[in-house]
Design goal:
This protein is α+β, with helices and mostly antiparallel strands. The chain has helices spanning 77-82, 110-115, 151-160, 190-203, 210-227, and strands at residues 62-66, 71-75, 93-95, 101-102, 122-128, 133-140, 143-147, 172-178, 183-189, 229-230. A hairpin with a 4-residue loop joins β8 (172-178) and β9.
């Protein structure tokens, strides 16, 4: 999460008058670092530019993943389209897709979630082509923290829940959230995970996060649900 705009470029501001959705608030239990700097005094932040060709780009632009550096770059539409094929840029760069999926026919149970042995209530799972394995991360005030994943449990659960294995390596992830009374999971673009981590770092205060952080995470999860479409294994 680098660049002139820092973490804030991945954090979408809530619309005025929009009530946040519901979601897990127990995802992090560690204290927060000092807050991130705000916009420049006296006005709005400068117009963002494509980090590949320097063209000015609007809000809601796409991102390109650098697989060697594990970073994301903001991209104009033309540059984004250049990297929609796996072999573009000699395989180093990949355009991040924009699909959100859920599988209402195959719900995860609390007992199945506990098989992952993740110590928090909100985590995302990314298949790394560089490492050749699935990695688990959870957002924290210090950034995205990697957690040891029970790979045997992952392989066993993907057989029963095919959406878990449907994410494209490096550019999509599986977001799993422990809620009341159960567990929900979605396939999301990897830049959504960057956004979630950005929200945590920008808004978390004190031991329990505070009202602003909880509302921000709830708003994020509500938007994921609104964009998510039903998954079809056959498709």
């Amino acid at each position: 999460m680098t660049g002139n705009a820092g973490l804030r470029r991945f954090v979408r501001a809530a619309q005025p008058g929009t009530a946040p959705g519901t979601g897990a608030t127990d995802a992090v239990t560690s204290p927060a670092p000092s807050g991130a700097p705000g916009p420049p005094p006296g006005g709005a932040p400068p117009q963002e530019k494509c980090e590949l060709c320097a063209t000015e780009i609007p809000a809601g632009h796409g991102h390109v993943a650098d697989l060697e550096q594990s970073t994301l770059s903001c991209a104009c539409r033309a540059c984004y389209l250049l990297f929609t094929h796996a072999q573009a840029g000699r395989g180093r760069y990949r355009a991040v897709p924009d699909r959100y999926l859920h599988d209402p026919a195959r719900q995860l149970s609390v007992a199945e979630w506990e098989e992952f042995e993740i110590p928090v209530g909100l985590a995302f799972f990314l298949r790394s082509s560089q490492r050749g394995e699935v990695c688990a991360f959870y957002p924290s005030p210090a950034g995205a923290t990697e957690s040891t994943l029970n790979l045997q449990a992952w392989d066993r659960l993907t057989a029963a829940h095919p959406l878990l294995a449907a994410a494209d390596a490096d550019v999509e992830a599986i977001l799993i959230c422990r809620t009341d009374p159960g567990v929900e999971y979605h396939l999301v673009p990897v830049d959504a995970c960057y956004e979630l981590a950005g929200r945590m770092r920008l808004h978390w205060r004190g031991f329990d996060g505070g009202t602003e952080a909880r509302q921000s995470i709830a708003e994020f999860l509500g938007r994921v649900r609104s964009r998510s479409r039903a998954f079809s294994p056959e498709a």
